[in-house]
Amino acid sequence: MNIQETDREYVAGTYARFPVTITAGKGSLVTDIDGKDYIDLTSGIAVNSFGVCDDVWYKAVCEQAAKIQHMSNLFYTEPCAKLAKMLCERTGMSKVFFSNSGAEANECAVKVARKYAADTKGPDYHTIITLKNSFHGRTIAMLSATGQDKFHESFRPLTPGFVHAEANNLEYMKVLADAHKTAAIMIECVQGEGGVVALDEEYVKGVAKIASDNGIILIVDEVQTGNGRTGHLYSYMNYGINPDIVSTAKGLAGGLPLGATMLSEKVKDTLKPGDHGSTFGGNPVACAAGVSILERIDDKLMAGVREKSKFLFETFTGAPGIVSVSGMGLMMGLKTTKPAKDVVNACISEGVLCLTAKDRIRLLPALNIPDDLLHKAAEVIKKCCA
Ligand SMILES: *Cc1c(COP(=O)(O)O)cnc(C)c1O
Fold first, then answer.
1. Which CATH architecture has domain 3-53+298-385?
2. C-alpha of residue 35 to centroid of ligand 1, in Å
3. Which of 58, 86, 246, 313 sits a CA distance of 20 to 30 A from 325?
């Protein structure tokens, strides 16, 4: 079977795939079907937190799969309870709802915020303010939340109740929050799909203040930025704010589908039995993987992420063909003089996998990528940008 031909014929054509078929890997190296090795700076879009087939992760997954792979959420299982407790203890949040993806984690966040607003202020307080250039997922509601028109084309009518504010413009946020009966403001501290753009600290603090002054729920979408990616467990921790709700997914289970919506004390009991649910959410294997990932996101690892980040910023800033460097931690965007897509294709030919986000090159290496591989990959990128 020719995999690429078969895929193109039978798999819905929603992805502009690179012409590479990956068959295996270890850590930050992956191998294609022809036996060519690549240094992976994508981590499956910030999913494989410790790279491919990491030993600790693999053991946690296999041990749980050998016990029980799934139970209905109508019964208790250990990994789900254990991971929820860990997440709360590490963040100061009070309860967690588990799902399977980022979009679902955000859907839950919006449901909680709307119900909380309905309970406390009345059912017409339902507007959710998100930011222009944001990305919150692909369900119809999360498309509506996403502040980029290119995702909206062909899928109207969108879900009503979402409005978009200009990022880093606090006045505008204030005006919108006053003009609408607002349930929640939802932000990404670093806009990932929007080109790896970190919001200004003053702005994020200001948004948190507008939310708390007006009884508006603050949701931080940590789907891409979470779980150590920015050099702290969650990106909001870089900004010194306390969100009411935090959603996460991608890197949480290190390569298995798992979404989590973390609820602060204020909203922890807003959802009652029957208000929300998920068949697969909180799956024992995914949660056991999550426990093994979270256990390893410690101060030492985070210091390493910040070191590697510093290296990348220093290497790329001012390099020939690189116009600017953006992002935080191991979530980095490069604006290049050549089209980003061309640079990424050149890098792939040279054995380095990276991504694009809008008009930038996007780098999302594993949190524990060995320095020698990172240095080697950075040289290739620099060469391809020049
Ligand atoms: C990837 C992403 C999502 C969507 O996650 P899925 O798991 O694809 O549903 C939502 N928000 C942000 C910030 C993301 O990066």
1. Alpha-Beta Complex (3.90)
2. 31
3. 246
Determine which helix (DSSP H) or strand (DSSP E) holds 167, and give its type and residue range: none
- The helix/strand/coil state of 94 is coil
Class of 57-294 in CATH: alpha beta
- Calculate the CA 59 to chain-centre distance: 24
- pLDDT, one tens digit per residue, over 311-336 is 999 999 999 999 999 999 999 999 99
β-pairing, 352-353 vs 37-40, is parallel
Eight-state DSSP code of residue 363: E
Is pTM, for the whole model, over 0.90?
yes
- Ligand 1 pocket: which residues have CB below 6 Å? 101-103, 106, 135-137, 188, 192-193, 221, 223-224, 249-250
Q: How far is the CA of 87 from the centre of ligand 1 (A)?
A: 19
Taking the C-alpha atoms of residue 214 and residue 72, their distance in angstroms, rounded to an integer, is: 39
Q: Give the closest residue to 339 by CA, choosing from 350, 347, 349.
A: 347
